[in-house]
Amino acid sequence: MNRIFDKKSDETELTWAELKEAFRKHYLPANIQADAQLRIEDANMTNQADNYVNEFRVMADESEYDDQALIHIFRKGLPFSLADKILNQPQGWPTDLEGWYKAAIRFDEQLKYAKAVQKPRRFQMARDKKKKYEKKEVAINRMDTRLTDDERKEYMKDGQCFQCAKQGHLSRDCPQKNMGRNEEHREQKKMPRDAYVKIQAIIKEYDTKEQGELLDIITMYEVFF
Question: Which residues belong to any copy of the CCHC-type domain (predicted)?
Fold first, then answer.
């Protein structure tokens, strides 16, 4: 570093490369090169290409590998889809490291933009599919009134119910169709028994003659129900 700070007038100016080399040798630890080589061999792009490029630049400078070795290492750390894009571009792949840096950033931005544009479309397709499924459910629930003659023939051929489209029963015996009716029927069947118990309790409050009249009424009531 004496040449930098104690420069004589007759000495030539240092180039940028020479200045960096002198600075590295004077200030950086002796094992910085070996450490950089280890880190750069394991480097991989994990998010954006520009971040990967910035980190790679530092390690590349410290590793002192030549450009051909660095190109190989840089390409190895790229995602397959991005490296494939760079290698298969019409003008061919870059011949220098700087070209690889620029191509990686450019194609990474293109790929991310393409994914961002496609996301709403996939969401719309999923929403349309859901609507279509909901419409189909409504159609199945009303199958017996909306089937065409051809559809009815097809359902009859396959032994499917006109009400729920399932096999194993006819429309008139469909569990979905008769579910409400069965519940109502069970409620109605409970009514005579409940009424009979109540009337029995009432009978005890009357004399023999009146009880006989009430029993006649009960008999008529049970027959009716």
Answer: 161-176
Work out how many domains the chain is built from and give that number: 1
> What one-character DSSP code corresponds to residue 15?
P
pLDDT, tens digit, 9 for 90 and up, residues 97-118: 999 999 999 999 999 888 888 7
The pair of structure tokens assigned to 2 is: 């004496």
- Domain holding 41, by residue range, is 16-118
- How many degrees, rounded to 5, is the angle at CA 99 between CA 69 and CA 14? 75
Inter-axis angle of helices 97-141 and 67-76, nearest 10: 10
75 and 83 Cβ atoms separated by less than 8 Å: yes
Mean pLDDT for the stretch of residues 92-99: 93
Q: What is the rounded distance in angstroms from the CA atom of residue 52 to the CA atom of residue 59? A: 11
In angstroms, how far apart are the furthest CA atoms of the chain? 147
Burial pattern 14-49, b for ≥16 Cβ within 10 A else e, equals: eeeeeeeeeeeeeeeeeeeeeebbeebeebebeeeb
Q: Where are the alpha helices (DSSP H) in 159-174?
A: none
Cα distance between residue 163 and residue 16, in whole Å: 85
User: Residue 160 forms beta bridges with which residues?
Assistant: 167
Q: Give the three-state DSSP class for 138.
A: helix
Judge whether 44 lies within some domain.
Answer: yes
